[in-house]
Amino acid sequence: MDDILFQYQVLQNEIEMEVIDDKESALIVAATVLVGTELTQQERINSPFITTMGFDVETFTFILTSGFAKHWYHTPIPRDDISQYANPCVECRSLDAGGALGLVSHYLSSTMHQISLQQVFALIPTTVSRYLSFGLHILLLTLRNMADAKIHWLQGDEFEECSALVVACHARLQGAFGSIDGLKIPVQTSNDIDIENAMFNGWLSEHFISSVLTFSSQGIVIAARTNTPGSWHDSHHTPAGYYIVADTAFPRGSNNIDGCICAPLKQGQTLRGTAADIEECMAFNHELFSYRQTAEWGMRGLQGAFGHLRVPLGTSDKEVRGDLIETCVHLHNLRAKRVGINQICTVYMNHWQATDEDIEIWHDFENMLFLEQRQKDWVTRFHVILEYQ
Length: 389
Description:
This protein is α/β, with parallel strands linked by helices. It has 13 helices and eight strands. Helix 1 (2-12) runs parallel beside helix 2 (23-35), helix 1 packs across helix 4 (57-74) and helix 2 packs across helix 4.
């Protein structure tokens, strides 16, 4: 808690030797630093924090004490007229570390323009721009060193742990441990013809940058390829017997990924076999299609929590754009693990299946909602052609 104590001392312009050795007191200090008043009722603090910045007070404090405050106080803000080795003038800055993290969090979690941030934080335009650039940089440095925010492929027994969560809900999906999908992030129109052409999506008549993300059954991003016009996957690191679930747009037949990606049946595909074989295949396809929805949940969770990804990003600086997307993915993992707001985790880690009655309702919920619609559905039968032998 040294960073928080130091920050508190700088703001109050005095030295207090009292040692804070418990979590509750440290959270009160963090809230004091950020909002300027002592807050003691934890449940009343978390709601506005999550609404405006995506994190509760404990997670906000965790980011501060994990290196963000240290970087803010010990690193000079880059300027053309100041050496990068100069001593930082902390007392001259308009925001402390808590305020800087709040500024960056507001920026990422909303679609507001910088002029709105100027009004909220009472800063001039150049200060907001400089603080955002520096704050995003040190936030990414902090997140890369935080275990809860890391993006890493599963190792060893982790495959079996994630697969067990899937099998508990979909008994036929033995070996499935995650889902993969593409994410289109809007970008501005580039003046460079080659760049503009690479980012233009003719189907949607808009400009996008592509990212491919893989979500485990725990709701964590375990692999990501961001900021590229192409597509990418990491399935060649998957051990035998395990696979990720995708839609039919992903390649599955090449030698290096054969058996590592599984997708539902394509529209118009023909199935041949006995009645029992076809029934089993259709049941497997239904569970596969149901689990593939987790990728959509993950993408929605990412874009819903970080509204800035819905604002067209600039095309002039690829590095800045890539760092911003990477920061959001790291924050998504941190949010999933420490705040617990994650639909995939909620569904597949049995939060809604505590009793036998809960389990019965959970498994029959689909029929309760869509029974009448399915009885009147005369189209689905033509999606897959069944030929019994």
